[in-house]
UniProtKB/TrEMBL annotation:
<keyword id="KW-0028">Amino-acid biosynthesis</keyword>
<dbReference type="InterPro" id="IPR013785">
    <property type="entry name" value="Aldolase_TIM"/>
</dbReference>
<dbReference type="GO" id="GO:0005829">
    <property type="term" value="C:cytosol"/>
</dbReference>
<dbReference type="InterPro" id="IPR002220">
    <property type="entry name" value="DapA-like"/>
</dbReference>
<dbReference type="InterPro" id="IPR020625">
    <property type="entry name" value="Schiff_base-form_aldolases_AS"/>
</dbReference>
<feature type="binding site">
    <location>
        <position position="204"/>
    </location>
    <ligand>
        <name>pyruvate</name>
    </ligand>
</feature>
<dbReference type="Pfam" id="PF00701">
    <property type="entry name" value="DHDPS"/>
</dbReference>
<keyword id="KW-0457">Lysine biosynthesis</keyword>
<feature type="site" description="Part of a proton relay during catalysis">
    <location>
        <position position="108"/>
    </location>
</feature>
<feature type="active site" description="Proton donor/acceptor">
    <location>
        <position position="134"/>
    </location>
</feature>
<protein>
    <recommendedName>
        <fullName>4-hydroxy-tetrahydrodipicolinate synthase</fullName>
        <ecNumber>4.3.3.7</ecNumber>
    </recommendedName>
</protein>
<dbReference type="InterPro" id="IPR005263">
    <property type="entry name" value="DapA"/>
</dbReference>
<dbReference type="InterPro" id="IPR020624">
    <property type="entry name" value="Schiff_base-form_aldolases_CS"/>
</dbReference>
<comment type="pathway">
    <text>Amino-acid biosynthesis; L-lysine biosynthesis via DAP pathway; (S)-tetrahydrodipicolinate from L-aspartate: step 3/4.</text>
</comment>
<keyword id="KW-0456">Lyase</keyword>
<comment type="similarity">
    <text>Belongs to the DapA family.</text>
</comment>
<keyword id="KW-0704">Schiff base</keyword>
Length: 287
């Protein structure tokens, strides 16, 4: 199975009081589907998952599934650093009708590789959903080893990994050692083309909120053998990719959307809005 090439790690829209805004969510989804998103990841890091309650996540999963109505895959961010809680939230996601679950490496409590394997195995055995692992050591401290990813890929419903290690050699080894239908997605927008070039499926993207169509064109050119043209687009997009991370994510991408006329509200504390200097820098990049 494939979830597509460009999966957008969707921001969570808030109203003026900081509550989840389902009308803005509908508007955002329609924007993303018209602008290059092959699939949506809901309540992941970019969706400000640490500040969303279980009830809010459940409501989001259900509403996004209803709005999308089968047009693209919906992947629920249902991971946690507590195995029992992750199992419970994954069941909520499954009941909401999502197409898959994305499970982040447990953060803060620093399990070893055996602990990581048991964590993901127990969740996988508790659900019929396809599972995408999410390895992001910059946020979790612990990094899942290549050996652990390969071992987990042998579990039937663990079908993909979002790799945000930045380690192309490690990703290449995962591709080489797993079955052909196990998918490797870049977790870093700036590595989209390099990861696809070594055999990856695509990217779970933040920047696709703004440049999804351009990213799709880059991959289309690459797939048609127009390597130099694809590389030229890659080089053009890199400054914008870095621009949406000039402040802790998703602060800048939410501001970028507002600059494009798509209101998704602000961010929840402890995140704070962009400074005037950051906002001016971002606006210049988008122009």
């Amino acid at each position: 199975m494939s979830f597509g090439k460009i999966l957008t790690a969707m921001v969570t829209p808030f109203d003026e009081e900081g509550s989840v805004d389902l009308k803005k969510t509908e508007n955002l989804i329609e924007h993303l589907l018209q602008n290059g998103s092959d699939g949506l990841v809901v309540a992941g890091t970019t969706g400000e998952s640490p500040t969303l309650s279980v009830e809010e996540k459940g409501t989001l999963f259900k509403r996004v599934v209803e709005i999308v109505n089968g047009r693209v895959p919906v992947i629920a961010g249902s991971g946690s650093n507590d195995t029992k809680s992750a199992i419970a939230l994954t069941k909520v996601a499954e009941e909401a009708g999502v197409d898959a679950s994305m499970l982040v490496v447990p953060y803060y409590n620093k399990p070893n590789q055996r602990g990581l394997y048991e964590h993901f195995k127990q969740i996988a055995h508790s659900t019929s959903l396809p599972i995408m692992l999410y390895n992001v050591p910059s946020r979790t401290v612990v990094s899942m080893s290549v050996d652990t990813v390969v071992k987990l890929s042998e579990i039937d419903n663990i079908v993909a990994v979002k790799d945000a290690t930045g380690d192309l050699d490690g990703m290449a080894e995962i591709m080489e050692r797993t079955k052909p239908d196990f998918l490797v997605y870049s977790g870093d927008d700036n590595l989209t083309l390099p990861v696809v070039a070594i055999g990856g499926e695509g990217v779970v993207s933040v920047a696709s909120h703004i440049i999804g169509n351009e990213m799709q064109e880059m991959l289309r050119l690459f797939e048609h053998g127009k390597i130099k043209e694809a590389a030229k687009i890659h080089r053009k997009l890199v400054p914008i990719v870095h621009g949406v991370f000039i402040a802790p994510s998703p602060t800048a991408v939410k501001a970028s959307l507002k600059m494009r006329g798509i209101d998704v509200g602000g961010v929840r504390a402890p995140l704070v809005p962009l400074t005037m200097e950051e906002s001016n820098e971002l606006s210049a990049l988008l122009r």
